[in-house]
Amino acid sequence: MTESPLLERLFAAEPRAIARVLSMVENEDPAASQLMAAVHSRIGGVFVVGVTGPPGAGKSTLVAQLITRIRATGRRVAVLAVDPSSPYSGGALLGDRVRMQEHASDKGVFIRSMATRGHLGGLARTTADAAAVLGAAGFDLVIIETVGVGQDEVEVVRAADVSVVTLVPGTGDDVQALKAGVMEIADIFVINKADLPGAERAAEAIGMALSLEERPSAGWRPPVLRVTATTGDGVPALLAAIDHFRTSRGPNGHVRRRERLEVALREHATARWLQHLEHETLGPGDWQGLVDRLASGNIDRDAAVEWLLHRAASAARAQASTSPLLDHVGVAVRDVAASRQFFEGVLGFAMQPVEEVPSQHVRVAFLETGDSKVELVETTREDSAVGRFLARHGPGLHHLAFRVTDLDATLAHLTACGVRLVDAQPRAGAHGRRVAFVHPQSAHGVLVELVEELRDGHEDR
Ligand code: CO
Predict the structure, then answer these.
(1) For residues 380, 386, 388 and 390, what is the CA-based torsion angle, rounded to 10 degrees?
(2) For residues 11 and 437, what is the distance between their CA atoms, to the nearest angstrom?
(3) Of 3, 62, 105, 288, whose CB has the highest number of CB atoms within 10 Å?
(4) Residue 301 neighbours by CB under 8 Å, 6+ apart
(5) In angstroms, rounded to a whole number, what is the distance separating the alpha carbons of residues 255 and 158?
(6) How far is residue 244's CA from residue 239's CA, in Å, rounded to a whole number?
(7) Alpha carbon of 309 to ligand 1 centroid (Å)
(8) How many CB atoms lie within 10 A of CB 230?
């Protein structure tokens, strides 16, 4: 299969193709996940530099200076500016972007703003995917610049190959940032506006904090560099530190790369698993029903998650197993509404709304018990099957219901085996599913109901 023209253009670093693929990644376009497979095979040796720090630390000016230095070494560099508002907005940020315009005509530079809102799969994943796209487009370095130091932004920078934390002296931001836990992610500290009074003290404060800290990345002590981004003073030393960090990790010792891949994997797997669970495993209305129960205080969040895990496990077992699964146990009661008191109030079941099934002259309500259910059945006509059962036996266990994928085929098989059926043809059961009953004479005294799974892709398991 030949590559799509869009990918060819991306690999040729055509700016409009890069922008288009980045938009697809950012908008979580379904086609993007297909492209990402090709992108990941072409990432090459891209190195991702995270630059973070509180607002006003001069990060954009610093990044603009870094671009100049990186270009001077002949390397190609891309910048992803993670903007908490929408792309290309915000006064201060816009001003910084304008400063970057000096690189606008340079084909070896690519600059892009990314909004932080609306990433269902997680900002860190979207950013990691975007960095991979830029790697596939042949950029040697990708700088991810965050505007602030919020939790999402820290996650983004944590996923970079090297993290640069930028502070300014004398604003109190240095102390704030240390408190915010940004400290732990820093591989390199930059004190910008180093000509301001207090730069020395800020550097000492960081050095002090570092000496007390146990760092996970052993063998690297984060340098504290003093820079004046507006003039470019100290920027060559910063680039040298970045390159030094890269080489110190060794060609195969990409600890951060591993971490980045793990973050992306974790977020992607979570999003996909939830999607699969909601659309493939759960029945129609199950998800909303769960939210309803959560909202009404019927269950707490832990119990809701347990229920989801249970359903997922059941579905996996059902897929692996070929034997019929128990769908529900039918219990004949005199009054479904009255039985709610015991099942819901005393035993704590979540009871689904009462449903009328005219074809069987019954009203039913299902009790959730995880994979299977209990069906409470009352009759609306004394001469119906359930009515006669109640008259003869009183309330009690009434039938077992098993799930089948193809009811017509099952009925044909049973007929061929000489089984006596109550229903030769399927009829309409509860939940809009097709059902048929097997006569107790052929099933050792038990009335057996066969329930067909819904076929519209939202099977009611
Ligand atoms: Co039933």
Answers:
(1) -90
(2) 61
(3) 62
(4) 294
(5) 11
(6) 8
(7) 25
(8) 14
Q: What is the pLDDT of residues 319-344, one digit of tens each?
A: 776 677 899 999 999 999 888 888 88
Beta carbons within 8 Å of 351's beta carbon, 6+ residues apart? 340, 343, 344, 365, 366, 367, 368
Residue 446: pLDDT over 80 = yes
Please count the residues of the chain: 461
To 5 degrees, how large is the angle CA 20–CA 135–CA 11? 60
144 three-state secondary structure: strand
The region that residue 122 occupies, defined by phi over 0 for left and psi between -120 and 50 for alpha, beta otherwise, is left
Distance from C-alpha of 334 to C-alpha of 104, rounded to nearest angstrom:
79
401 Cα: distance to centroid of ligand 1 (angstroms): 6
Tokens encoding 205: 């404060």
Share of the chain above pLDDT 70, in %: 84
Q: What is the largest CA-CA distance in the chain?
A: 96
Which residues neighbour ligand 1 (ion) by CB within 5 Å? 330, 375, 401, 449
For residue 407, the CA-to-ligand 1 centroid distance in Å is 15
CB neighbours of residue 378 within 10 Å: 21
Compute, in angstroms, the gap from residue 402 CA to the centroid of ligand 1.
Answer: 9
Q: How confident is the model at residue 460 (pLDDT cuts 50, 70, 90)?
A: very low
Model confidence pTM above 0.70: no
